[in-house]
């Protein structure tokens, strides 16, 4: 059985994304999609992180980060950078960093 390609991508989400359960919901959504990685609040008021998984799950999570978020959040924009293919996962699960 051929191994599936793992995509690694970093993200940063701008808007009202702190104090609105955005990180908790990000972990829940990423875990549902079987993604691995992390997210954290930044001093500038954004949420940034990295995620790894198959292309379809990464695509779905990008949509969620840019358009859905947590119920009380307001997403102004989401940026994705340093997208690349990797051979093995870098993270054991998806978590919040402090």
UniProtKB/TrEMBL annotation:
InterPro entries listed in its UniProt record: Acylphosphatase, Acylphosphatase-like_dom, Acylphosphatase-like_dom_sf, Acylphosphatase_CS
Highest taxon in the source lineage: Eukaryota
Known catalytic reactions: an acyl phosphate + H2O = a carboxylate + phosphate + H(+)
The keyword Hydrolase is annotated on this UniProt entry: yes
Class in the EC hierarchy, top level: hydrolase
One Pfam family per UniProt: Acylphosphatase
Domain Acylphosphatase-like positions: 8-98
EC number: 3.6.1.7
Gene Ontology molecular-function annotations: acylphosphatase activity
Active site: 23, 41
UniProt keyword terms in alphabetical order: Hydrolase
The keyword Membrane is assigned to this record: no
Family the entry assigns: Belongs to the acylphosphatase family.
Name of the protein this chain belongs to: Acylphosphatase
Species, as recorded: Gryllus longicercus
Species lineage: Eukaryota, Metazoa, Ecdysozoa, Arthropoda, Hexapoda
